[in-house]
């Protein structure tokens, strides 16, 4: 049994914290002693009933939860204060509970972990979750070459050099990091663990027999998602399937979606836009014949593993997606569970529609999708990988 301090700058009261932190830790806690520090946002903390229910779940799993308050403004000073508070609490827990491994999720938490490692010599697991600094530039938040970017990349270098093991979401990111000049000639312990999916929830469900051909889109339409290109591809699919409908599952961007549909010249009667709770999304995916999504193929996306890919495949639904994003093109091609678009042109979309028609005619396609999801994205597989890594670092 390893003694772990897990640091997350995301709150456990947020959906991300529950799906991408707690989902793993609740299972790992049966084998390891875990202290969890998270930073909770004020509006989430104010929901007393939800907070108490979550605290009960965490305690029942055997995890010691140490929530701290997340501070947002003024930005730099607030983050610096959070880093100080997390470092101080983490240092106390490391000494008190004789922690062996400091597991830090992403960059801000890793600053705390690096401070604690330097003071105590404990093992440091850098769970990087992507090229964060480059995401800030590619997303238009920071100017390229800005001081903030240079500082963040400097910290990234320190994390990679100091970490006893590094978890990456993609094999593509590992290949990229192995070209970094400062890592040349150094043996680094990399472990690829993609964004995993709860396949007990995202599983094939009964499908209605009489229904129109349905293209599905699930999730955000924001900065990283090329929604106009998605709609253009849908129009190409309508050329092959004139009765095709687009089902969009999205929480809060319905007005923007309707606006872009109108701008694309698509009949609004062919589009259904609705919100769905996380635990009902699989039911909506069961209405779909193919999942369609395009993500901006920026440099930082080399290290991204879209959650929706595992969710579609787990439900037995093939995907039509683009290259240049993590390992998704490799997964779709190797498993034969989807179509990959290299360019966002009418010709490429028409070709994709033809390839999709042939793909959908394959009799074992749904079963193959589920098998690929189990092999690549299962939560159990992710938990087993973390468990093995913990044991290796404390051997």
UniProtKB/TrEMBL annotation:
It is an enzyme of class 2 (transferase). It comes from the Bacteria. Pfam families: Glyco_trans_1_4, Glyco_trans_4_4. The keyword Glycosyltransferase applies. Its EC number is 2.4.-.-. Residues 21-194 form the Glycosyltransferase subfamily 4-like N-terminal domain. GO terms for molecular function: glycosyltransferase activity. Keywords: Glycosyltransferase, Transferase. InterPro entries: Glyco_trans_4-like_N. PANTHER family: D-INOSITOL 3-PHOSPHATE GLYCOSYLTRANSFERASE, GLYCOSYLTRANSFERASE. This is Glycosyltransferase. It comes from Parachitinimonas caeni.
């Amino acid at each position: 049994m390893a003694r772990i301090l897990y640091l997350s700058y995301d709150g456990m009261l947020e959906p991300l914290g529950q799906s991408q932190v707690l989902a793993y830790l609740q299972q790992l806690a049966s084998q390891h002693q875990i202290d969890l520090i998270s930073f909770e946002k004020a509006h989430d903390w104010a929901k007393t009933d939800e907070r108490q229910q979550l605290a009960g779940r965490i305690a029942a799993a055997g995890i010691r939860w140490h929530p701290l308050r997340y501070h947002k403004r003024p930005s730099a000073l607030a983050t610096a204060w959070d880093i100080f508070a997390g470092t101080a609490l983490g240092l106390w827990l490391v000494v008190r509970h004789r922690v062996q491994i400091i597991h830090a999720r992403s960059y801000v938490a890793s600053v705390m972990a690096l401070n604690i490692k330097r003071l105590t010599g404990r093992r440091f697991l850098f769970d990087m979750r992507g090229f964060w600094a480059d995401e800030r530039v590619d997303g238009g938040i920071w100017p390229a070459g800005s001081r903030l970017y240079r500082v963040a990349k400097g910290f990234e270098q320190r994390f990679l050099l100091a970490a006893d093991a590094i978890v990456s979401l993609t094999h593509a990111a590992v290949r990229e990091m192995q070209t970094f000049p400062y890592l040349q000639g150094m043996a680094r312990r990399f472990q690829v663990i993609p964004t995993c999916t709860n396949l007990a929830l995202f599983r094939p469900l009964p499908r209605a027999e009489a229904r129109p051909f349905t293209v599905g889109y699930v999730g955000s339409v924001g900065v990283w998602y090329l929604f106009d290109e998605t709609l253009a591809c849908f129009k190409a699919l309508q050329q092959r399937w004139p009765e095709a409908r687009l089902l969009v599952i999205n929480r809060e961007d319905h007005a923007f979606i309707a606006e872009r549909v109108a701008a694309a010249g698509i009949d609004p009667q062919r589009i259904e836009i609705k919100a769905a709770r996380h635990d009902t999304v699989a039911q909506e995916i069961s209405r779909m014949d193919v999942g369609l999504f395009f993500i901006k193929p920026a440099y930082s996306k080399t290290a991204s593993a879209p959650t929706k890919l595992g969710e579609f495949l787990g439900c037995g639904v093939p995907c039509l997606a683009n290259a240049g994003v993590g390992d998704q093109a490799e997964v779709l091609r190797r498993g034969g569970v989807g179509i990959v678009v290299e360019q966002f042109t009418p010709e490429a979309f028409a070709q994709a529609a033809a390839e999709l028609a042939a793909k959908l005619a394959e009799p074992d396609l749904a079963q193959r999708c589920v098998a690929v999801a189990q092999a690549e994205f299962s939560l159990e597989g992710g938990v087993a990988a973390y468990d093995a890594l913990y044991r290796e670092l404390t051997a």
